[in-house]
Specification:
By secondary structure, the protein is α+β, with helices and mostly antiparallel strands. The protein has helices at residues 3-12, 18-30, 47-61, 88-98, 117-128, 147-159, 180-190, 193-214, 220-242, 251-262, 268-274, 281-304; strands at 34-35, 40-44, 68-75, 78-85, 129-131, 140-144, 165-169, 172-177. The strands form two sheets. It has a four-stranded antiparallel sheet.
Length: 305
């Protein structure tokens, strides 16, 4: 399964109420490759997309819209699901509900209410987004159907502190992100927090491997041990943060947690030296044990809830 599909699986689970369903379908429709007064075509190879679309249409349009659904073989085990609407009255209804002008599609922020902007961006990703396996390269992109929609999306991402570049590829206007931190922010904003953590773990491994290559006679077993410990520590800190409990930690544990997130490659000894009141390796290890115990307690609470 591709990393892009992992992202889709996770963000699909965040589309939980009608406002978010409305915004998500808006993103998919607005950024579909074909949207004219004669036909609307929504296509994807993602099985998540195939499961999500009927639910979104029912939530927003009830029984008003009946797209023609087909599965198209792409050779081998690959197939693509296609939702096509050619009825003029149904297309008119979509345009009326979402205030879409087929001849000049643009983002209308008035369609996005009650903090549903993230669901809209998730819909755009469903409609035209993809991401390369971060083990190979840091690259997330949106293949948009027009220059205006590409620029609108770039401005929208810019409003939440995310910047990307544009290029023209095969008559499609591509908005792409290559900065790993901006990709992490985008995934998190869309609702793919676990994919963000997976990406961070990959970055840690890459950073550690690069450092290992620069240091002669480095003991690979020790590096793997340090990497594994750092990953576990960061996962614990991420979980505590996600639960909104970071401030429940004592000030010295909060300081150590922030240092670990900022310096995933450092050893316990090096982290101890950066503390406002430096301590040795064993002291740092003892504090991380407290952080791990608190994270485990939060996981048990979540499992029992």
């Amino acid at each position: 399964m591709s990393f892009s599909n992992d992202v889709r699986e996770e963000i699909a689970r965040s589309i939980t109420d009608r406002d978010r369903q409305f915004a998500c379908l808006y993103g998919i429709l607005l950024y579909s490759r074909i949207f004219t007064q004669e036909q609307v075509v929504l296509q994807s190879e993602s099985p998540v997309f195939a499961r999500l679309m009927p639910m979104l249409f029912r939530a927003v349009f009830r029984t008003e819209l009946q797209p023609d659904v087909r599965t198209i073989s792409r050779g081998g085990d690959q197939s693509m699901v296609s939702y096509t609407i050619t009825d003029a009255a149904q297309i008119s209804r979509i345009c009326e509900v979402y205030h879409i002008r087929p001849e000049k599609r643009e983002i209308r922020l008035s369609n996005l209410v009650n903090n549903s902007l993230s669901a809209f961006l998730a819909g755009v990703f469903f409609g035209c987004g993809s991401m390369i396996d971060p083990n190979k390269e840091y690259h997330l992109e949106f293949n948009t159907p027009s220059e205006l929609l590409c620029s609108d999306l770039q401005k929208l991402l810019g409003s939440i502190g995310i910047s990307g570049g544009q290029l023209l590829r095969k008559n499609m206007y591509v908005l792409y992100l290559k900065d790993s931190e901006h990709i992490e922010d985008t995934l998190t904003y869309m609702g793919a927090q676990q994919c963000t953590i997976a990406l961070m773990n990959i970055k840690i491994r890459k950073d550690m491997r690069n450092k290992a290559n620069r240091v002669r006679n480095c003991d690979e077993a020790n590096i793997n041990k340090v990497v594994g410990a750092a990953i576990r520590q960061i996962q614990d800190i991420q979980w505590i943060t996600q639960c909104g409990q970071l401030e429940a930690l004592s000030p010295e544990l909060q300081e150590l947690a922030e240092l670990r997130l900022e310096n995933p490659e450092l050893s316990l000894k090096e982290l101890g030296e950066l503390l406002s009141e430096p301590i040795g390796r064993s002291g740092v290890n003892h504090r991380f044990q407290k952080i791990a115990a608190f994270a485990e307690e939060l996981r048990k609470r979540a499992a029992d809830a």
